[in-house]
Amino acid sequence: VAHLPYLADTARLEYALREAYHAADSIPVARERLQDPRLLEARLTLAPATRLVTSPYPVHAIWRAKTEPGAPPANGRGEAVLVTRPDWDPKPVVLPADAARFVAAVLQGQTFDRALAAAGENLDLAALLTLLIETKSITDIEVPA
Questions:
Q1: Are 38 and 45 in contact (CB under 8 A)?
Q2: What are the distances in angstroms from CA 13 to CA 1, 64, 111, 123?
Q3: Cα–Cα distance between 85 and 20 in angstroms, integer?
Q4: Mean pLDDT across the stretch 32-42?
Q5: What whole-number distance in Å separates Cα of residue 2 and Cα of residue 33?
Q6: Does residue 2 register a pLDDT over 90?
Q7: Sorting pLDDT into bands at 50, 70 and 90, what band is 72?
Q8: C-alpha to C-alpha distance for 83 and 103, rounded to whole angstroms
Q9: pLDDT at residue 93 above 90?
Q10: Is there a contact between 102 and 119 (Cβ–Cβ < 8 Å)?
Q11: Interatomic CA distance for residues 30 and 15, integer angstroms
Q12: Would the pLDDT of 32 be above 90?
């Protein structure tokens, strides 16, 4: 399989989808909690089903080509894929690189402000937070006392 260098990362995406499907159920945080004035110092907790798969290969496009008839062909660029489970079935979503850096930092337990710093100045924070709320990915916001 040496001629298929993307295969391992595509398998990681498949595995992340499987893990998300079998992950514990969770209750999403209320959107209003994001308005806490101490949010920058807080740590976000993501749902047990949340996974992040990053690859130098277009793993989401490859996965879609395999699972969705008529899906557009892969463009050859690397992708970061957020796997969530808003309801019953896992949902993979391609993230921009800066959003992926933010999510990775959150998954590593970094505070909100450190996750922002990791993401960089081009992060569309409103779009990312909307995605995380709509996919029921944020389950807690731990604000320091």
A1: no
A2: 18, 11, 26, 24
A3: 6
A4: 94
A5: 48
A6: no
A7: confident
A8: 11
A9: yes
A10: yes
A11: 29
A12: yes
DSSP β-bridge partners for residue 45: 140
pLDDT over 90 at 74, yes or no: no
Q: How many residues does the chain have?
A: 145
Q: What is the 3-state secondary structure (H, E, C) of the chain?
A: CCCCCCHHHHHHHHHHHHHHHHCCCCCCCCHHHHHCCCHHHCEEEECCCCEEEEECCCHHHHHHHHHCCCCCCCCCCCEEEEEECCCCCCEEEEECHHHHHHHHHHHCCCCHHHHHHHHCCCCCHHHHHHHHHHCCCEEEEECCC
Helix axes 97-107, 125-134, angle to 10 degrees: 60
Give tens-digit pLDDT for 76-85.
899 999 999 9
Structure tokens at 55: 């690859």
AA identity, residue 105: A
